[in-house]
């Protein structure tokens, strides 16, 4: 059994150095191919002596083929093992750095030891600090577990290659045609036998930190192979780096688009002769065609969002999830680089939102929020970058579908979506060596989804709710108000609300007797921000917004709305520049 103490001493350098010497030996062996063909039985030589000579030559050729395969197998496995150890050692360094930063230690047996919180922790923060330390300890245990899994996998694979070489079982050369022998062909077969497997990912329901720990334990070459060969494993796995998820999801998107186009072509070949007939067969055909076209249109919209006019991936966009299950397509699209941006915001839209109808509008709105946030940072002399994610990873209810009415009333779709959203938020932090400043943005029913998600230790630093009917699934009569904010694990003063004049949805909180918790506009501990016309601290005019759908509005002349500016101020980490509500 491999221990943590042992893997901290693993060194890839000797294996990397050996590859060059092994390669030189391999090239010398392969260069013998022409000589072997020349020493085969000379033309015109017959008889017993010729037969004996031919048998001897065949044994030499078979032996050299096996040797070439063994050397190639050793070369390949040595390189792969050295590469895999490099990735694993990086994961060890990250885990030990995380432990030191937070005053933990990892023992030689892999045990995670908590050396205690800072002694000057204020009394009123001890509970929150304790919860945070439990989360860090769990993440460290995940990292140790995945490093040891990777070490065992490397060890088992390398031993299997060496055992085959020592037993002479790398290939069976006796079945080859020695008249046309090629030692390079034998070497290629041996190299294939020397490749390492890639450590399998954690179960599909694993935590984001477990997924991140697994990803951290892989080498970059292993990651690239997974993205190329198994994008379905990567695209929706919270905790994996955003660049890899995006590459995998774009590959899956292209595959699904082609598959649906092929399916539509085949369906068209089976079209009834008269599509105007009012018969069940025509109805069934048209219904299937309509669903295919809706799916194709939604996928086409995502494709247009993440690719440029040249059909290549847009470097300023990332496709962080692509869920093809359920009745409607679900996706998350980012403006900017979620792997490197110092400030990341995740926006969750509300009712009547879908990938096919308005994802593109939301993504554009969030691009403008990012631009305003970066303008605010520039004004402070800060070159930090911002990324904004539009997350439609759930199926919000629609007012046009009577079947969705129960979801609207009891918030069940919000609860289902909140579980996914919480994992998505956790995955952003877990995938990065240093957590970004993470802001949750929730509009309308999406604010309810965001509020519930925040109860699950998401690592979100700030939350902005706008046009909100409520942010809690706690019914009236239960502890509300400031308790709801504490349940969301937000630090005091880091929750914000915007309610525009004439927003009937935002009035639901005060009219529904707390069905979705306390009305955010009346919630103790909630910062209320201005939505009417105002002026920025540096004197720029801002336009007012009214109704339910103008919170991220930009005027035709480029002027920001007050609500959009306030959202961007929080996203930028400069909430002190946000404009408080009047009255």
Number of strands: 12
Mean pLDDT: 89
Residue runs with pLDDT of under 50 for 5 or more positions: none
Range of helix content: 40-55%
User: Which fold name corresponds to the CATH topology of the largest domain?
Assistant: Rossmann fold
Would you identify the CATH architecture of the largest domain? 3-Layer(aba) Sandwich
Main beta sheet strand tally, sense and closure = 8 strands, mixed
Distance between the termini: 67 Å
- Work out the helix count: 18
Radius of gyration: 31 Å
Globally, the shape reads: globular
How many separate structural domains? 3
Give the name of the CATH superfamily of the largest domain: Alpha/Beta hydrolase fold, catalytic domain
CATH class of the largest domain: Alpha Beta
Could you state the order of secondary-structure elements as H and E? Answer: HHHHEEHHHHHHHEEEHEHHEHEHEHEEEH
Order of strands, widest sheet: 3-4-6-5-7-8-9-10
Structural class: alpha/beta
Strand proportion, as a percent range, falls in 5-15%
């Amino acid at each position: 059994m491999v221990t943590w103490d042992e893997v901290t001493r693993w060194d890839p350098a000797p294996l990397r150095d050996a590859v060059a010497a092994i390669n030189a030996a391999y090239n010398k062996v392969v260069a013998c191919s022409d000589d072997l063909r020349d020493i085969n039985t000379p033309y015109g030589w017959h008889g017993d002596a010729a037969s004996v000579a031919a048998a001897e030559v065949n044994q030499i050729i078979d032996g050299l083929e096996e040797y070439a395969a063994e050397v190639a197998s050793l070369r390949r496995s040595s390189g792969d093992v050295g590469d895999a150890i490099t990735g694993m050692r990086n994961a060890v360094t990250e885990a030990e750095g995380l432990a030191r930063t937070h005053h933990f230690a990892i023992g030689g047996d892999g045990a995670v030891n908590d050396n205690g919180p800072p002694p000057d922790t204020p009394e009123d923060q001890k509970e929150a600090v304790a919860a945070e330390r439990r989360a860090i300890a769990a993440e460290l245990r995940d990292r140790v577990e995945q490093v040891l899994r990777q070490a065992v996998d490397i060890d088992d694979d390398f031993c299997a290659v060496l055992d085959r070489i020592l037993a002479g079982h790398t290939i069976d050369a006796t079945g080859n045609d020695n008249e046309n022998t090629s030692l390079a062909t034998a070497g290629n077969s041996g190299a294939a036998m020397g490749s390492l497997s890639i450590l399998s990912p954690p179960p599909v329901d694993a935590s984001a930190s477990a997924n991140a720990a697994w990803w951290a334990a892989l080498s970059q070459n292993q990651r690239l192979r997974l993205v190329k060969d198994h994008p379905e494993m990567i695209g929706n796995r919270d905790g994996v780096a955003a660049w890899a998820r995006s590459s995998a999801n774009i590959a899956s998107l292209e595959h699904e688009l082609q598959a649906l186009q092929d399916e539509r072509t085949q369906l068209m070949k089976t079209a009834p002769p008269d599509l105007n007939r009012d018969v069940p067969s025509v109805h069934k055909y048209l219904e299937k065609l309509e669903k295919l076209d809706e799916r194709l249109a939604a996928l086409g919209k995502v494709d247009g969002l993440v690719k440029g006019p040249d059909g290549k991936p847009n470097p300023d966009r990332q496709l962080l999830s692509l869920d093809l299950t359920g009745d409607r397509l679900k996706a998350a699209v980012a403006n900017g680089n979620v792997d490197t941006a110092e400030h990341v915001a995740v926006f969750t839209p509300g009712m009547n939102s879908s990938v096919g109808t308005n994802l593109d509008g939301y993504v554009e709105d969030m691009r403008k929020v990012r631009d305003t946030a970066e303008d605010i940072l520039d004004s402070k002399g800060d070159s930090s970058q911002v990324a904004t994610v539009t997350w439609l990873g759930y199926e919000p209810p629609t007012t046009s579908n009577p079947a969705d009415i129960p979801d609207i009333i009891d918030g069940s779709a919000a609860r289902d979506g909140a579980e996914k959203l919480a994992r998505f938020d956790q995955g952003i932090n877990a995938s990065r060596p240093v957590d970004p400043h993470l802001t949750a943005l929730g509009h309308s029913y999406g604010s309810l989804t965001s509020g519930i998600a925040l109860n699950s230790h998401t690592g979100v630093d700030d939350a902005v709710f706008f046009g909100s009917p409520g942010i809690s699934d706690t019914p009236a009569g239960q502890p509300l108000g400031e308790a709801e904010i504490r349940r969301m694990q937000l630090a005091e003063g880091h929750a914000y609300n915007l309610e525009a004049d004439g927003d009937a949805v935002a009035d639901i909180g005060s009219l529904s007797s707390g069905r979705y918790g306390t009305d955010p506009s009346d919630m103790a501990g909630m910062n209320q921000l201005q939505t009417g016309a105002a002026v920025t601290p540096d004197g720029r005019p801002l336009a007012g917004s009214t109704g339910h759908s103008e919170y991220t509005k930009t005027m035709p002349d480029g002027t920001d709305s007050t609500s959009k500016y306030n959202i961007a101020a929080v996203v930028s980490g400069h909430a002190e520049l946000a404009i408080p509500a009047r009255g």
